[in-house]
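Board notes, transcribed. Complex of a protein with nickel (II) ion.
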Amino acid sequence: MSAPESASPSSDRFLSRRRFLETSAVIAGALGLADAATGEAAQQKPAGGTTPNTPVHPLDPLTPDEIVRAVEIVRKARNVDDSWRFVTVTLAEPGKKTVKTFKPGGLVPRQAFVIAIDRSHGRPYEGLVDLVKGVVDRFDPLPAGLQPSITLDEFSECEEAIKRSPDFLAALKKRGATDVQLVMVDPWSAGMYGTERPEDRGKRLSRALAWVRSEAGDNGYARPLDGVVAVVDLNTMQVVRVEDYGVIPLPPEAGNWHRSYQKEFCEPPRPLQIVQPDGPSFAVDGYEVAWQKWKFRIGFTPREGLVLHNITYTDAGRERPIIYRAAICEMVVPYGDPDERHYRKNAFDIGEYGIGMFANSLELGCDCLGTIRYFDARMNDSRGQPVTIKNAVCLHEDDVGLLWKHTDWRTNQSETRRSRRLAVSFVATVGNYEYGFFWYLYQDGNIQCEVKLTGIMHTTTVAPGEKPAFGTLVAPQLNAPFHEHIFAARLDMAVDGEENSIYEVNTVSLPSGPDNPYGNAFRAEHSLLAKESQAQRSVNGASARYWRIVNPNKTNRIGEPVAYRLIPGENAPPFVRPDAAVMRRAGFIAHQLWVTPYDRHERYAAGDYPNQHPTGDGLPIYTAADRSLVNTDLVVWYVFGHNHVPRLEDWPVMPVASLGFFLKPDGFFERNPALDLPPPDKV
Ligand code: NI
C-alpha cells in the first residue's frame, strides 16, 4: 500500500475512489464504453478480424446463413410448423477421412445436425441435413423417454409461466413476498430418480427453483424461496403443480456484489499495462490459428462451447499431430443434501443445458490483458433463427514467467527464457455460476486445460438458529450446500499419428532387501492398458500416477515410442454412493480415466441425451464391449472434480477456484523443444 498523499482520512478515501474511477475508465474503455471525459486508453486491444461468414474448411462451425438454410430445408421436407422448437442446429462434423483429404479451396462438405421438438405431440426428433444438396438425409423421432437439452427460450418461458401460476403466487404470499416481479426462477432439470410420479412420466419437465430480490438490482440468490418447487411441463408451458415443503422465513441479509452496493473500495493497484507494440505473435486465417510452432482450428458448439481441432506442433519443419479434437464434453454438479427438497440437484450443465448457449459476450468484459482476437459464436434460437454471441471466444497471449534458466557459476554463462503461452477461452454463466474454460499452448510442447469456477453459489434457506448438516452457513439463515463440480474432457488423441496405445505409470518404491539394500530405490512402472475394462482408472497421489499416450509406430532417438503424458491436476472422487440414482445418468464419474477406441458416434461422457434419461448412457455403455486399445485410434476421457465445501469467503461472489490437467510431451521431442527460443536480448 502506498503512503497516503494526505493525512486526512476523508481525502485518503477520495484518493482511493479517484484511482478506482480511473481503473474503471480503463476497463470501460476496453468494453467500448469509454468515457469521453476521461478518454482513457484500453489495455484490451482487439486484434481485429472477423468471424468467417463463408465456410472454407469442413470443421468450420455453421454460419448464420447455413443455420437458416438447414431449418428451411427441414421445415419444407418434414412439414414442420411454428409449434415446433429447434433445440440445436449445429455442424455435423464430417468423418476424419473427409477432413484429412480435404484440400484448401476444394468443395467443403456441409451437413447440419438438427435436434427439434414437435411440441404439439411432445415428440423430439434428430436429423441430418445435407446443405450442399439441400436435402434431409434423415429425420427420426428419438426413442421414447429421451429428452433433448433445455433451451434458452424455455428458461424465460418457464419463468413467465411460474410467475402467472396462482399456486405459486399463493406460496409466495405465504412467505411474505408480494412483488412477483422480484422473483427469479432457475428452471433446474428434473433428472430421473425412480421417484417420479406416474403422471409425470414421458413429460418434458423442469423442477424450477425460485429466489426473491428485495429490489431490482439486488442479488436474489441471497434469498432462496426454499421449500417451493414448481414442476413445469416445458412442452405445454403449464405449471403441473407447485410442491410446497413448508415455510422457512427468508434470510434477513442482502448479499450484493455489484459496485453500486459497495460503499467503499480499498486502495487499488496502479495500472498494469500489457503492451504489444508489434501486435500479437499469432496469425489467424478463418478459424485456423498459428502461433509459434503450434497450429490448430477453433470450433464452437452450443453444447460443449469451445472445441479445439487438429492441434499440431511443427518440429524441425515437420507438422506433427498431437490431438485431433479436444473439448470438455460433459459435467455434473452433484449436491450432497439428502433433504426431500434438495436430493434431485445434480446439474449436467453441458448435456442438460448446453454450456455454449450460455457463453458470455466478452464485449461485456474479459479478464484478459494484451492484444485480443475474439471469435463470435453462432447458434440458433428455438424458432430456428440464428443467434450470434459476439466475442464469445477469446484468443490472446500470456507472459507466464520463467520457461527455463541456468547459470554456470564457474563460467558466468547465464541463459533465461521467459514463457509465453497462447490462451484460448470462453466463459459461460449458467444461472448463478460462472465457468471459464481455458486451453493453453506453451512453447515447450505443453498443453494445459484449466477450468475456472466463480460466480454465486447455489443457496438454500435454513430456519433461524439452525446449523445445516450438509452445507456451510455463509450468512444468517443462508446455507451453501456441499457439492462437487465434475468435468469430463474428451481428448481424441493423435500422438504423431492416429494409431496410439496407452500406459499407466506408477512410481513405486522397492521392498527393502537384496534389490534395495539401502531403502532408497524407487522407479516408474509402466503398464499397458490393453482393453477398455483395464483403462477405467482413478488418480493416485500415492504413486504419482499419470498416463502415457504412446505411438508404438514412431520412435525417438533413444529408440522409445514417442508419447504425450496426461498429468492430473486437482481431482476428487465422486462422494455420491455407487447406488445413488444420479450414478445411472452420471456413470462416467465412477472413474477418472476412461479410454475408448475412436467411434465418431461416441461424443459425450453421459451419452447424447442425459436430460431425464431413464437408464443412463455414455461411457459405461460405450465400453461394455471391452474393445482393444492397442495401436489404434484412441479417445482418452479424463474426468476431474472439484470438491466444493463452501467457505464464508465464497460469499457473496466466489473468488476463482481452478482445476484442470496437463498434457506434456514425453519422449515426443528429441530434447527441450524450446531450446531454440531466441534470448530476449536478441529479439
Ligand atoms: Ni461450487
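Residues 1-42 have pLDDT under 50 and may be disordered. Helices lie at 9-30, 64-78, 96-101, 152-164, 166-174, 349-353, 582-585, 619-622.
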